């Protein structure tokens, strides 16, 4: 049975039936009893609205875009799952694109998503440059940045408290007697990495430890590069007593280098990683991590975007959402005995 036939059967206007089946009954203040009657009858008679016709009529595709920099990164895979789950609960589907940590691919993905007439976009930008993203601002497309952000886009954002997470990790290491604390960073022009490095340096300053540029290594979101840079750190004399890896991929690279150097964690080197993963507790020793609230980030990003999509909210400004992180103490960190 089609929508028109269902409306005639119920003796209710087609527009009312259409709005209820589109999940917009409350928005148009349709009585709960009427909504229930329509939905129950539709389910009983297997009536479904024509999605294309509905999207043209309502000027809404009920589709959200999600553009992330690396789907193979466990953090972004978990984020995508959280976004899809929340969007589906709100009656939306998600169109996912992977920019592969490339500005060029990111620009292509933005064009593709906009051409698909998405209702709004959740974006975790690659970083570096944002000129190719300005079209999102000029097009008035509802936009929420998540994890990584460009302040120049002046868009809503959902991030973790990256500064406090890194600072607290350094505090923990200092409390256990560590003074030579190295840091493995990703892309320096990423807002996330910049905030974590700032927290790392603040933790050192707070403890009266001079920042040393030779102990700040890395520069790419790459396990292989993190391994290479960790190898160089381990060859230094004296070598670091602890490493703070600013992502899970960087931590894996550090673990590779430590194994190849035939060193032992935490006897020879303590290690803390940003991002909690299911495998972190299964390592031997288990990995101390700074856990980000990935599920909450995905949920908040969808809610932020949907708040912008509502006609009444189009002109309102959304304050940045900063979610707390948590240090999970495990076996990869130990007190350092004085040299």
Explain this structure.
Helix content is 42%, strand content 15%. With 339 residues, the chain is of the alpha/beta class. It has 3 domains: 3-57, 434 Repressor (Amino-terminal Domain); 62-160 and 294-324, 3-Layer(aba) Sandwich (Rossmann fold), CATH 3.40.50; 162-292, Rossmann fold (3-Layer(aba) Sandwich), CATH 3.40.50. The protein has helices at residues 3-10, 14-21, 32-44, 51-58, 74-89, 103-115, 134-138, 162-175, 191-206, 223-235, 248-260, 294-309; strands at 63-68, 93-98, 120-123, 143-146, 156-160, 181-185, 216-218, 242-245, 270-274, 288-291, 321-323, 326-328. The chain is built from 12 helices and 12 strands. The chain has a 6-stranded parallel beta sheet, sandwiched between helices.
Mean pLDDT: 90
The proportion of strand residues reads 15-25%
Largest sheet: 6 strands, parallel
Helix content: 40-55%
Backbone shape: elongated
Number of strands: 12
CATH topology annotation of the largest domain: Rossmann fold
- Lateral arrangement of strands in the main beta sheet: 2-1-3-4-5-11
InterPro entries: HTH_LacI, LacI/GalR-like_sensor, Lambda_DNA-bd_dom_sf, Peripla_BP_I
Protein name: LacI family transcriptional regulator
GO molecular function: DNA-binding transcription factor activity; transcription cis-regulatory region binding
Domain HTH lacI-type: 1-58
């Amino acid at each position: 049975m089609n929508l028109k036939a269902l409306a005639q059967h119920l003796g209710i206007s087609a527009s009312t039936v259409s709005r209820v089946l589109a999940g917009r009954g409350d928005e148009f203040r349709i009585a709960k009893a009427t909504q229930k009657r329509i939905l129950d009858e539709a389910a009983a008679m297997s009536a479904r609205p024509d999605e294309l016709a509905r999207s043209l009529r309502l000027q809404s595709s009920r589709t959200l875009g999600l553009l992330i920099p690396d789907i193979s990164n466990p953090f972004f895979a978990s984020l995508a799952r959280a976004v899809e789950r929340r969007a589906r609960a709100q009656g939306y589907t998600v169109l996912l694109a992977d920019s592969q940590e490339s500005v060029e691919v990111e620009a292509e993905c933005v064009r593709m998503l906009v051409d698909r007439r998405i209702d709004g976009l959740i974006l975790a930008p690659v970083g570096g440059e944002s000129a190719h993203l300005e079209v999102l601002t000029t097009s008035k497309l509802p936009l929420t940045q998540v994890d990584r952000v460009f302040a120049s886009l002046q868009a809503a954002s959902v991030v973790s408290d990256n500064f406090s997470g890194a600072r607290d990790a350094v505090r923990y290491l200092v409390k256990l007697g560590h003074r030579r604390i190295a840091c493995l960073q990703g892309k320096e022009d990423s807002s996330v990495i910049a905030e974590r490095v700032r927290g790392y340096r603040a933790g050192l300053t707070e403890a009266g430890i001079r920042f040393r540029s030779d102990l700040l290594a890395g520069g790419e979101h790459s396990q292989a590069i993190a391994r290479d840079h960790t190898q160089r750190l381990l060859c230094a004399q004296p070598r670091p007593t602890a490493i703070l890896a600013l992502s899970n991929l960087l931590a894996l690279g550090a673990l590779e280098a430590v194994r190849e150097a035939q060193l032992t964690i935490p006897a020879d080197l303590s290690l803390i990683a940003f991002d909690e993963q299911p495998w972190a507790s299964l390592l031997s020793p288990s990995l101390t991590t700074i856990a980000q609230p990935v599920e909450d980030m995905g949920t908040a990003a969808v809610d932020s975007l949907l708040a912008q999509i509502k006609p009444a909210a189009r002109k309102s400004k959304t304050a940045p959402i900063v979610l707390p992180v948590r240090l999970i103490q495990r076996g990869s960190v130990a007190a350092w005995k004085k040299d």
